[in-house]
Amino acid sequence: NLQLRVEIYESISDYILNLIEKKLISLENQTKETNEVHHSHQHLEDGSCCSKKTETNKEFKKPELSPSKYLDTTIHCLSECIIGCGSYFAPFLSERLCNLLKLSANHQNRFVRETTFNCYVSLFNACDEDQIKIYSKDLIDGLSFGLSDEWSQVRFASSTATRIFITKYKNIVSNYYSILLPRMCLNRHHVAEGLRLYSLDNWKTLVGTRGRDLMAEHINSATQYYLEQIKSKDSSVREAACHTITEAVVCIDRNVISSKIKSLLSAIIEAFHDKNWLVRYAACLASSKFIEVCPEECKSELPELFSLWFEHLSDNLHSVHKDSAVALKNAIIAYPTDATPKILEWLRENLLSITKQPDDVSQGNSGLKAVSLFPSSSQSSSSSSDNQDQHGHSHSHAHAHSHGHAHSHNEDDHHNEHEKINNSTSTSSLFMASNEKKNISQELNRTKQPWEYTEGSLQMIREMVSLPNTKDFVIEFLPSFEQIARTRHFAHYVYVHDTLWKCVQAVVENIGVNKFYPFLVKLAPQAVLTLICRHPAAESSAAACLVYLQKKYGKDEIKGTLTSEELKIYNFCEMVKIPRR
Question: In this structure, are residues 451 and 496 in contact, taking their beta carbons and an 8 Å threshold?
Fold first, then answer.
């Protein structure tokens, strides 16, 4: 009976709200005590305040059951009451209720936050536009917390509530575009697939085909939000912020965005120093687009950008140095007189660095790892995934990366354990702030291997050979290709060869078969030998290169460059056989 449900809620509504308020205050006090304990530990590490630490530990006792669990359950009870009352819940909507939900939406425990946004869903389904309008500011503030949350699950729950708000309260939502649009826009680039796709649908529902115009109208609030998010503790949010900034620079009218270019570019340059390779990858892409779209506004930052591009051109991650090469290519287009001499000088200096490579690279070759700054039981398991390369091989150095695409947050149902973890986030912030830059610096400033400079050089040649004003410069580097192809004295030469044979195809395509012909005799046999290197990516690249050369020069011409042993390998390999039509 609906009337009975309403009567029951009316009799217990004050009790439920009092309970929520009580638990929020209790948790706030507990956080202060926990921070005092952490502060005393810091003093102990400095060699002082030992007695204070002991006294504080005695006074502070963790409750047997986490207050967050009580709060989570109480908010869930409130949500069920709203569902049960349906449209009859409207008289109970009050400023106190909305304020409590807003506080819960910004709570330290992510389970509480997620449950709060489920309660928002129930509330929006129950109330009509006139009732919500009175308290819309507090409700939107709560949604903004969720849409910016560090946990993708909370962002998704908030996005679910946001969808109901934008579809049901169409006359209200336009008043809050400056808050909703930047957050919804960024979530379209989030690495969590469910959240990303759901946010895309939300965006289409809200703006239709007016996205560029609306973002241009609210460019101030959007850029301010992006600059905040690019400094988030969550690497997936920092990555999404880089992509969103790139989108804004490319899509929004240049007259509107030009005044924001300097601050946005400064944020992207800062992201170049990120410890997570996915963020650096996104920063490379962004810088490339900045140079392409607004070269004049970026000119003052060129010295630092060139330094970063060259530094990342020798990065041990294929995606990063590839995008650095693309950025330098765009720099040649935008600033031909400034960029071309710098790039040619760098290539002359680094292309043959592979010849300086020591025989044993496995021991002294430390790759970039996403090292957790928080000691936890999951750290060892997460660090073990850092050494998976993009070619599908696990090793300690080349192309090693952290699987930042997938969230590694454990879905443990034990609230007490999560309470410890969630509370430690705030108490560990001082530790993180003081050590993060030092850790990042150690990770990024590792000693690079000579072969990485060669691979980056080949990637640069592959990009610049397609430009009309630089393709002729590439010919001077072709004699070095044979020496690179003959270098096989260390374990990771296969990655260089993988890039080399892709580069050869691009060179032939752009400079022409006649200019490349003198180098065919020396390079074709080396490509054949790569077919038996037992590295799938390198073998595939060499085979693709040989098939391409067959089409350009003919199969007999290729065979004429091979010895008898090389000819056996060539004839035996199925990948180089062109099927008859």
Answer: yes
The model's pTM is 0.76
Contact predicate 279/235, CB 8 Å: yes
Instruction: Read off the tokens for 392.
Output: 């599908």
Whole-number pLDDT of residue 29: 58
Name residue 394's beta-bridge partners: 388
Q: What's the angle, vertex CA 410, arms to CA 407 and CA 413, rounded to 5?
A: 140
CB 182 within 8 A of CB 227: no
Residue 62: is its pLDDT beyond 80? no
The per-residue pLDDT for 580 is: 56
Residue with tokens 């790139």: 246
In whole angstroms, give the CA distance from residue 452 to residue 493: 10
Report the amino acid identity of residue 215.
Answer: M
Distance separating alpha carbons of residues 366 and 386, to the nearest angstrom? 11
> Would you say 552 and 511 are in contact if contact means Cβ atoms under 8 Å apart?
no
387 forms beta bridges with 401
pLDDT in tens, 447-459: 889 999 999 999 9
3-state SS class at 394: strand
Collapse the DSSP code of 231 into the 3-class scheme (helix H, G, I; strand E, B; otherwise coil) and give the result: coil
pLDDT in tens, 263-275: 999 999 999 999 9
What is the average pLDDT across 384-391? 38
